[in-house]
Design a protein that fits this description.
Distance between the termini: 19 Å
CATH architecture: 3-Layer(aba) Sandwich
Oligomer: single chain
Structural class: alpha+beta
Largest sheet: 5 strands, antiparallel
Shape: globular
Order of helices and strands: EHHEEEEHEEEHEH
Radius of gyration: 14 Å
Strand content: 15-25%
Helix content: 25-40%
Length: 147
Amino acid sequence: MQIRKDIRWKWTDLPLDKNTIEQTEKILNVNFPNDYVKTILNYNGGYPSIKYFNCGIKKDLVFDSLLNLKADGDDVSLVETYNNIKDRLPNHIVPFASDPFGNFICFNFNDKPATVCFWDHEIAFSDVDKSITRLTSSFSEFLDLLH
């Protein structure tokens, strides 16, 4: 799987080590896809230069930033984000990126391998299961959607 090379990642935090990723996976009881791991190792918490994507009838949604696996200070980590919203997420859905409006781009670990979906926080208040829309079969395919 090729990861897009034309995306520039801005405002990234210090690179991660594999131990931090493995600790996060253990806490969440998941195995992140390899293409995501390759990206997060170097661009943890980063903001992509190409950030718009479509989701069904919704056009030009925004990929704001990757969630930080090793947050400090004012940042909220991926695990903290998951814990804050898990009561409104379907089982085995884990956020990995945010939009600027309170929604998240997530991995669906119900699928093998994990797929990528969009979680709408407003819909989640009334119907958790309808809050998820499938986007792509992989993280790399999701990056390919960006325009």
